[in-house]
Design goal:
29% of the residues lie in helices and 18% in strands. It has six helices and nine strands. The longest helix has 19 residues. It is elongated. The chain starts with a strand and ends in a 6-residue tail after the last helix. The chain binds 6-chloroguanine. The site of 6-chloroguanine has 14 residues, from strand 5, strand 7 and helix 5.
Length: 228
């Protein structure tokens, strides 16, 4: 899978050199390329933003540097790549969407800052990209960089070969619509707190039933919105 990220703070994305995603890049499973939006400006000050038409606070990112950057990451022979635009005004990013995106060949993340990108860029880009504005949740970040990191990790770990043991993807929160059951390891008694008895029983059916019950209990308690 190829992933391009365009940002005015490319250094933010240096975390992609680390851990599982970093390893997948080194192995050639993920081809991640980070680009500085300012490289696509032509004026002396490398301007990327201006004041909003209609007035209001903040600045809006200029259309032309974005168009140049997006044209540069398009690869001939590329079917329609997917353009993900992180924004609190986007559609909710979910595990289901991560799974769907993990099957695509080419993702491009457009990290906006300030009050966002001139809306015409998204309209124009829709001619050659599958454009999806995405939000991590109902809160506001200063820009799309941190959100892109989160999404690249969520998507990247679902790409075959990125995670050594794909079984670990099965029993985790959101994979079956419920939160994950609690986990315990040694020692069996720690500071007077014992591990739930059933986990030491060796009775696999009883363990599976207890874990299911814990998933439902937790989900009811913490995320009732996930239950039917
Ligand atoms: Cl995806 N981007 C920004 N800038 N803020 C957010 C977000 C994304 N998701 C929640 N807040």
């Amino acid at each position: 899978m190829r992933i391009d990220v365009v940002s005015i703070f490319p250094e933010y994305l240096s975390a992609l050199d680390l851990s599982l995603i970093g390893k997948a890049r080194a192995q050639g499973i993920l081809d991640v390329r980070v680009h500085d939006l300012r490289a696509f400006t032509t004026d002396r000050h490398r301007t990327v933003d201006d004041t909003p038409y209609g007035g209001g606070a903040g600045m809006v990112m200029l259309a032309e540097p974005w168009a140049q950057a997006l044209e540069s990451v398009r690869d001939d022979g590329d079917a329609r790549p997917t353009l993900l635009v992180p924004s609190p005004a986007g559609r909710q990013f979910t595990q289901a969407l991560a799974g769907e995106l993990a099957g695509r060949d080419h993702l491009v993340f457009a990290c906006g800052r300030y009050e966002g990108i001139d809306e015409r860029v998204l309209e124009w880009a829709a001619e050659s990209f599958d454009v999806i504005p995405v939000s991590l949740g109902d809160y506001v970040l200063n820009g799309g960089e941190v959100a892109s990191l989160a999404m690249i990790e969520a998507i990247g770990r679902l790409v075959p070969g990125v995670i050594g043991n794909p079984e670990s993807l099965v029993e985790e929160s959101h994979s079956d619509g419920l939160l994950e059951y609690p986990a315990y390891t040694k020692p069996s008694v720690w500071r007077g707190r014992a591990v739930p008895e059933v986990l030491l029983s060796g009775n696999h059916a009883a363990i599976a039933a207890w874990r299911r019950d814990q998933q439902l209990e937790r989900t009811r308690e913490r995320r009732p919105d996930l239950l039917p």
